Amino acid sequence: MQAVLPARPVFELGLDICVFLFLPVLVLASRGVAPLVAVAGVCAFGIAVPGGRAAWRRVRGLALLLFALVLWGLASSLWAVEPRRSLLIALRLAGMCAAGLALIAAAREITAPGLMLRCLFAGFVVALGLAVVQFYTGGALTAPFAGRAFFDTTLNHAEDGFGLLLAPLCATLIARRQRILAGLLAVVTVAAICLLVGDAARIAFVLGVVAAVPLYLWRAPLARLAAGASVVLIVTAPLIFPPLAGVAPVRHEAEDFKFSAWHRLEIWSFVGRHIAEKPVLGWGLDSSRAIPGGADLTPEGRAWLPLHPHNAPLQLWLELGVPGAALLALLAARLWLALGAAQWPRLYAAAAGASLVTGFVVALGSYGVWQEWWVSSEFLTLFLVLVLAGLAQPMPETRTGSIS
After folding, report:
1. The pTM is what?
2. By the 8 A CB rule, do 223 and 354 touch?
3. Is residue 180 classed as helix, strand or coil in its secondary structure?
4. Is residue 288 in some structural domain?
5. Theoretical Cys-Cys bridge with 348: which of 171, 304, 318, 373, CB 3.0 to 4.6 Å?
6. Which DSSP category does 403 fall into?
7. DSSP-derived 3-state class of residue 282
8. How far is CA 225 from CA 219, 232, 337, 383, in A?
9. Rounded to an integer, what distance in angstroms lies between the CA atom of residue 385 and that of residue 404?
10. Which domain holds residue 134?
11. Are 1 and 50 in contact (CB under 8 A)?
C-alpha cells in the first residue's frame, strides 16, 4: 500500500486529464470514451487503494448488483443466439464495471477537487465550441480521419453529456459564489442543446430541469416515490411499451412528431412479442442484434429491430429475462434512495436529481444498454456528481468565491 502513496499526485493528475477530455471526446469520437474511462479507472484504483476498506465499503452494495448482472450475462451465453458475442460483451461489461466501481470508490479520496472542477469546466467549454464547429461545418474537424460521412445525429452523444452534467456543474458554481459564470454556462449550453438535432436528448434535459423543482422542495419523499415507480416501470415494461403501437392517439402523435418516434413504437411492439417467447431466461446477453426476424423490414422499410430495442428495461427483459429486469430495477431503486439519503445541500441535490432524471429518460428511448461509450459515460458522470458534491457545500461568509 505504501508503494502506491508516492504516485497519488500522478493518479490524480491522470484523472484530471480524463475529466477534461471527457466531453470533447464525446463530441469528436464518442467511442473513445470507453478507453478514456478505462484509464480513469486505473488512476482511480491507485487513489482508492490507500483509502483502505472504507473506500471500497462505500461501493459494496453497488458492486454486488453489478457482479450479479455480469455473472447472469455470462451465464446467458450458454443459451444465447450468438454465444461468443454474449461472452465477449460480458467480459467487456466486467471491465467497465471494475473501472466504474474504482471511480466511485475514489470520489471521496480526491485531495484537489477544485482542480478537477476547473478541468471539468474547461472541458465543458471546449466541448461546446467543438460541437458548434462540427455542426456548422458538417464535421470538418473529424472529416480527415473519419471513415464515413458526418451526420448531425453523431453529436447526440455529446448533447446527452451536456444535459447530464450541466445542472450539477452549475449548482456547484453557484455554491462557490460563481453565479454569473454559472448563468453564462447555462445560457450557452441550453442554446447549444437547442441548436443540435437530438430531440430525445432535448426532451430528457427539459424533463430533468422540470423535475429539479419538486426535488428541491421535497427530495426525500419524492426520491422514495421515484424508487418505487422505477421498479414498477421496469418490472411491467413488457406490458407498457409494446402495446403503445396499437394505441391510435399515441401512434398518430408519434407519426406526426417524427418518423423515428413511430419506428420506436414498432421496435417495442416487435420486442414485446419476443420477450413473451422467453420471458424467464431471455435470449442471451446482447442477442438483440440477432433475434430471429429482427432484420426483416417494417412496412415503411426499416428493420424491426436495428441492433437494440432503444429502451433499457425492454432490452434487459429481452436478453436477460426476469433476473436481468429485477437487477435493473434494484439498481434504479438504489440510485434514487441514495439521492434521497445524501447529505447534500438542497440545490445541489436537486441538480443531481435532474441529472438522474435525464439519464433515466435517455435510457427509455435511446442507445443500447451495453454500448461501451454509454456505460462509461454513466460511470464517469456518477463519479463527477460525487466529487462535485463535496465542493457544493456552503462556503464560509469570509471567503471569496473561486473555481478552486
Report:
1. 0.92
2. no
3. helix
4. no
5. 171
6. -
7. coil
8. 10, 11, 9, 24
9. 16
10. 5-217+370-391
11. yes
Q: What is the count of structural domains for the chain?
A: 1
Where do we find the cell 480526491? 110
- pLDDT one-digit tens code per residue, 266-298: 999 999 999 999 999 999 999 999 999 988 888
Cell of 190: 441550453
DSSP assignment of 196-263 equals: S--HHHHHHHHHHHHHHHHHHHSHHHHHHHHHHHHHHHHHTHHHHSGGGGG-HHHHHHHHHH-HHHHH
Residue 332 lies in a domain: no
**Within a domain: 82:** yes
List the beta bridge partners of residue 303: 297
Encode pLDDT of 207-262 as tens digits: 999 999 999 999 999 999 999 999 999 999 999 999 988 887 877 777 666 667 77
Cell of 161: 453529456
Residue at 176 is within a domain:
yes
Number of H-type helices and E-type strands within the chain: 16, 0
DSSP assignments along 342-392, one per residue? ----HHHHHHHHHHHHHHHHHHHHSS-TT-HHHHHHHHHHHHHHHHHHHHT
